[in-house]
Design brief:
single chain, about 90 residues, mainly alpha, rod-shaped
Length: about 90
Amino acid sequence: MQDDDNRRDEVQRSAPSSRPSQQDDGNWGRYLGIGLEIAVGVAVGYFVGSWLDRRNGWHGTGTLVGVMIGLAAGMYLLIKDAVRINKD
């Protein structure tokens, strides 16, 4: 009986905890910020592109170019943050 209790204690100590570490809890804001950077870049590109479409009569070309530039800017910020995080 005591051997069973000792084995159970050893297994519980060696099993990984189901709760993430305290350090992981603080990272959700950083990841949310990275996602928002991309989303805001695409949204700004969309609105500027649609304004250019209405103003110049481009029929969607400005929107497409604006979204692509916004996506590229968001990806640039993502890569820049990834490099910075990797250095830390």
